[in-house]
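Suppose a colleague, Dr. K., hands you the sequence of a protein chain of 253 amino acids and asks what its three-dimensional shape might be. Before reaching for any lab equipment, you can write down a predicted structure in token form. Begin with the sequence itself:
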Amino acid sequence: MRSIPYMFLLSILLFSSALSAKELRLLTTEYPPFSIAGKSGGGLFAELITEALGRKGWTVRVRSVPWVRVPLEVTSGRADGALICWPEEIKKFDLLPSRAAFTSELGFFVRKADADKINVTLAGVRGQKVGAVRGYGYPPTLEASGAHLDYVHDDQTNLRKLLAHRIDYVALEKVVGEYLLQQPELAEVRDKVVWKAPPFARLPLFVGIARQLPNAASILADLNDGLAAMAKDGSYQALAQRYQLSVTGLPSP
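The predicted structure, expressed as tokens, is then:
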């Protein structure tokens, strides 16, 4: 009989511990080198956020899903937020943004044979077929450019379609496109497709936290403090360099 109060007390303590556990469930999509499902650590952005929040006692679980599923997963309570959000996606998914973690250069990849004569301004793509990915929150300026946006499920498909002359441009983040072109599965595309400057948008990349979370403000405060601490001690820059990314666009300490 004496074991009953003990077991009751233990169950209360375990339940209280579970309630107070600092675990965050975040979604991402395959967007290398920022997010790589098959890589230890999950990619640059996943490693960055895991360490920044880990310094504040959080355990971060990152799950990769098709990007179009993010709003459904967050509003249903199956996830607490998302990684690698452009400003339009923060609004579209009704998330609260962290401080900017990186700056994204969004522009166009073109066929190398056409690079010298092709116009990569937003005015220049009017009436042209531009490859895009379903669910991404592209800037309104691209949608208003008059381009015919041809949506598929991933950037690799668009790069192959570009080489096959099925589209005229691929709208893609510079670092992401250059990383993809180094992968074995795109070997046939690598030397025939190039980024052409200038970018049509430079966009901050955020972590978005679900607005309905009661502790959303404290999560963001912990995340922002962790990012600032990593920038101050150099670990932020070291992580970026390990992924061979430029350190421009990193937040100041």
